[in-house]
Amino acid sequence: MKQSLLFVPTLRDEPKEAEIISHKYMLRAGYIKQVAAGIYAYLPLALRSLKKIEKIIREELDAIGASELLMPALQPAELWLESGRWNQYGDTLMRLKDRHERDFALGPTHEEVITFLVKDVLNSYKKLPVSLYQIQTKFRDELRPRFGLMRGREFIMNDAYSFNENASSLDETYEKFHQAYINIFTRCSLDFRAVQADSGNIGGSESCEFMVLSDIGEDTIVYSDSSEFASNIEVHNLPVGAPSPDGKGTILHAKGIEVGHIFKLGTKYTNSMKAQFTNEEGNREDILMGCYGIGVSRVLMSIIEQNNDDKGIIWPKSVAPFDIHIIIIDPKNNNQTAVATQLEKTLEKRYEVLIDDRFERPGVKFSDSDLIGLPVRVTVGKNIDNGFIEVKFRDKDEKFEVKIADLVDFINENY
Ligand code: ATP
Ligand code: MG
Question: Which bound ligand lies closest to the C-alpha atom of 218?
Answer without folding.
Answer: 1
